[in-house]
Amino acid sequence: MYKHLTPWAQVHLMELAKQGHAAAQCAVANITSRHCSCAIHDKLAAEWYTASAKQGHEKAALNLGYCYSVGLGVPKCESTALKWYTQAATLGNRPALLTVAGAYQNGIGTTKDAIEARKWRQLFHGSAAGANADTDADAAANADARTVADES
């Protein structure tokens, strides 16, 4: 994606990132992470993703969530990954919506919560509460919620 940037464009992009421009920070992180798969570049990319995500950049938050989920440049931590995935999801990132739903469905980085999982899937589908209750995913969430309620 960025391999065709001229040297001038790369310098300009880095200047914008250093000035705190969130999109430029995310772009620098993307370039850094794709440049070389080594610990130094992974750590640097995670730092740029963090700076960008803290400013509300949805793709940076998604990518930072991934970094934490696999331990790429940061210590592996599923709960921190979920925090960043949730931020990306609340900013409208569709892949993050499903990732958050899956985390709640499977108890990754949090306790299992079928109702919360269903809420995030409904947001993904763009439905109002209960509008898609007959879909396979929602039916599964309802079954899991009943099982949880029965076990209580």
How would you describe the overall organization of this protein?
With 152 residues, this protein is mostly helical. 71% of the residues lie in helices and 0% in strands. The protein has eight helices and no strands. The protein has helices spanning 7-18, 22-35, 39-53, 58-70, 78-90, 94-106, 114-125, 136-151. Helix 1 packs across helix 2. The radius of gyration is 18 Å and the shape is elongated. The relative contact order is 0.08.
* Cα gyration radius (Å): 18 Å
Large-scale geometry? elongated
What's the N-to-C terminus distance?
51 Å
Low-confidence stretches: 127-136, 138-152
Instruction: Report the sheet-strand fraction.
Output: under 5%
Summed up, the helix count is 8
Average pLDDT? 85
The percent of residues in helical segments reads over 70%
The biggest beta sheet is recorded as:
none
How do the SSEs run, as a string of H and E?
Answer: HHHHHHHH
> What is the number of E strands?
0
Q: Pairing-aware structural class of the strands and helices?
A: mainly alpha
In short:
By secondary structure, the protein is mainly α. The protein has helices at 7-18, 22-35, 39-53, 58-70, 78-90, 94-106, 114-125, 136-151.
Task: List descriptors.
152 residues; elongated; disordered C terminus; 8 helices; mainly alpha
